[in-house]
Amino acid sequence: MQRRHVVQYGAAGVGAVALMLGVGWWRVDGPGAPKPAGQRPLPLSAMDFRLTDHEGNEVGPETLIGRPTMVFFGFTYCPDVCPTTLSDISGWLEDLGNEAAQMNVVFITVDPARDTVEAMAEYVGYFHPAIRGWTGPANQIARAAEGFRASYERVPTEGGDYTMNHTASVFLFDAKGELVTMIDYHEPREFAVPKIRRALTEYVEGAT
Amino acid sequence: MSLLLLLSGTSTPVFAGSEDVVVENAWSRASIGVNRPGAAYMTVRNTGEDTVTLTGLTTPLAMMPEIHETKTNAEGVSSMAPAGEITIEPGQSVALKPGGLHAMLMKLQNPMIEGETFPLTLTFSDGGEVTVEVPILGIAARGPES
Ligand SMILES: [Cu+2]
């Protein structure tokens, strides 16, 4: 049993290195080549990834352009931050009511190994019906995170399982796919809801 | 415990402090099956005169219950790790709440079903224990009042 865990960690390590090399290549030569702004997410139109939504549809950044968008990274095995954020988002959407009806709301997993399309479908079903779940191959998840400047990391836990560290902020884009602003983890509703209203109404040209 | 009782040789309580611990507003979220870990939240209040130290958890619901702490760094990245022992000064309380300290319930033995409850025992460094019945709310619950 102990030995099997060691072997599994070994394999995960090789995978992690391969993933890092992939991300590294993409960062240097690909469309994610460094920008002076550094941490600022790209416009959706400058991102490039292919994922699958929880209903099995092929999706990508272009799916989101044309409507205001809210994006959050997480994983369904998260016991604390992700269910809290998804219920916060559900509460914001309820506050906004019809105003938010035309909004894209997407939960992108950082744990595609466990978060299959079926797992995402069941999970998002417990929250606001507007919330879509996106998953896909590990390299495409990495490209998505790179575009949003989100980070994540697999961390083994004592029991032989693992958890994921991940960016907990919610990203807000306007209908043209330009970043409006971000909502920090557990930001009070009285700050979060006006930010979403801005994404719904404002066509941002430059910085926030 | 039994050793302490033998040594003290009396029926007077051997606890120093933990008998004055009060647990309030406990709640948890329903789970999907048993593969994902659960979490429980509560306020642990020390109403006594002595400092108490919360050292661990036990529950028939989970083989590996542990106190964890979620932290979010300046870059907005959240991570979670065992919190170790938690000291509560006299008259103070510690809140286990979403995004901070929580009772992490790993290796669930049964699914956590909305509307049911489960017993969670907090163990203290003086050998005392406090057991609380934790209500299970919906997966999207935000707290005991919602
Ligand atoms: Cu935890």
Automatic annotation (TrEMBL), chain A:
Disulfide bonds join C78-C82. It comes from the Bacteria. Keywords: Copper, Disulfide bond, Membrane, Metal-binding, Transmembrane, Transmembrane helix. Residues 40-205 form the Thioredoxin domain. The keyword Protease does not apply. InterPro entries: SCO1/SenC, Thioredoxin-like_sf, Thioredoxin_domain. GO terms for molecular function: metal ion binding. CDD domains: SCO. Cu cation binds at C78, C82, H166. The chain crosses the membrane at residues 7-26. It holds the Pfam family SCO1-SenC. Belongs to the SCO1/2 family. This is Thioredoxin domain-containing protein. It comes from Pseudooceanicola atlanticus.
UniProtKB/TrEMBL annotation, chain B:
Transmembrane segments: none annotated. SUPFAM superfamilies: DR1885-like metal-binding protein. GO terms for cellular component: membrane. Pfam families: PCuAC. Coiled coil: none annotated. Residues 1-146 form the REJ domain. Residues 1-16 form the signal peptide. The keyword Chloroplast does not apply. This is REJ domain-containing protein. Keywords: Signal.
